[in-house]
Amino acid sequence: MANSVALGLYITICCVAFIMSKIIVSFLLYKRWARKRRIIEDTFTDGKVVMFRSPTSRSLTSKAFMKKTMKLSNKDIIGSGGYGTVYRLRIDETTAFAVKRLNKGNTDRDRGFERELDAMSDIKHRNIVTLHGYYIGAQFNLLIYELMPNGGLDALLHGNIPLSWSLRCKIAVGAARGLSYLHHDCIPHIIHRDIKPSNILLDQNMEARVSDFGLATLMEPDQSQVTTIVAGTFGYLAPEYFDTGRAATKGDVYSFGVVLLELLTGKRPTDESFIEEGKKLVTWVKEVIEEKREEHAIDRSLVSVPVEKVRKMFAIAGNCLESDPSRRPTMAAVLKMLEQINQTNL
Fold it and tell me: Where in or outside the cell is it found (predicted)?
């Protein structure tokens, strides 16, 4: 008798526990659904979506875009950094965007969004990523970009598939053309402040596109420099920037010189081999140039490279990396030099 009572009590407790667990799980799922629905409703009531007219976005409504955006998850992430997370947003089989999300509440991110929007809103250039629109909301901001199918130069350059000499030349010229446009043809002029391989994206034709304007600084034509907080990526920053805190186009030229060295040598400025020897990529290459041993510094994955053109490319990089910024060429001059030595490759 006692055993039957105990068994009945045990079964009752198990059933109650099972029912309670189901109720709790259902409650949590409901709260998650309600929270997500509430965010979607906030997006339309408290936020503003602006889509620029283009063949890619003309058939996309703001409501449809935001609904798809709310379904993005970690599996859609294609890049991240201090100024936001970038997602691949696929609309259909032929249309996709790169969406940069910047959560609110962080002053740097809010300013980064404003800088990027100021810099990109009027730019249309073959070597600059295209901004298709933006969203300003209570909880987060979004920047809607054209998706670059071949990703960033950093991943390709340091990946398993070697880049040919002609392709590296093409990428160098494209990136230089984009920077030259920012420095000389935009009004106000734009100083990028974070030129590096990961911020040079590649479209379906392997054409270089300068991207990520979260640190960009606008400069009026009558100015030569702008006082800013020192920011950027270690290894690519011009030495005078640390001393003065003043951003100038010649700082971008220096950073581009480091990118040229990376294209030539296949080594990052923070490569372990340099750290072990107590050197830097820039100082190592300068020694190589002085000793006229450029062909020995070339990326080992490259074969049958034209030695004379390699030396000229190293010389251009060396000019960009002059310690005195007044001795560095402008990006317009760098572009012209690159086009001259690589015209047979492009």
Answer: Membrane
Q: Which of the residues are catalytic?
A: 194
CATH assignment of the domain containing 84: 3.30.200.20
Radius of gyration of the chain (CA): 26
Main-chain phi, psi angles of 34, to 5 degrees: -65, -40
- CB contact burial 25-60 (16+ within 10 A = b; e otherwise): eeeeeeeeeeeeeeeeeebeeebebebeeeebbeeb
Task: With cut-offs at 50, 70 and 90, classify the pLDDT of residue 276.
Answer: low
In a domain, 19, yes or no: no
Tokens linked to 9: 């009590």
Q: Decide if 38 is inside a domain.
A: no
For residue 196, give the nearest of 138, 254, 124 by alpha carbon: 254
Residue type, 261: L
Judge whether 100 is annotated as a binding position: yes
Segments forming the whole domain that contains residue 234: 153-342
Contact assessment for residue 200 and residue 161, using Cβ atoms and an 8 Å cutoff? no
The answer to whether the CB of 270 falls within 8 A of the CB of 254 is no
Buried b (16+ CB within 10 A) or exposed e, 132-142: bbbbbbeebbb
Same domain? For 131 and 175 the reply is no
* pLDDT score at 346: 45
- Structural domain contains residue 269: yes
Which amino acid is present at 287? E
Reading the block at residue 173, the tokens are 């010229």
Model pLDDT for residues 20-61, shown as the tens digit of each residue: 776 776 665 555 555 444 444 445 556 788 877 666 666 667
- pTM here is 0.81
Q: Specify whether the CB–CB gap between 228 and 289 falls below 8 A.
A: no
User: At CA 191, angle to CA 149 and CA 235, rounded to 5?
Assistant: 75
- Could you give the percent of the chain with pLDDT greater than 70? 80
Question: Is residue 203 over pLDDT 50?
Answer: yes
pLDDT tens across 112-143, in order? Answer: 788 888 888 778 899 999 998 888 888 888 99
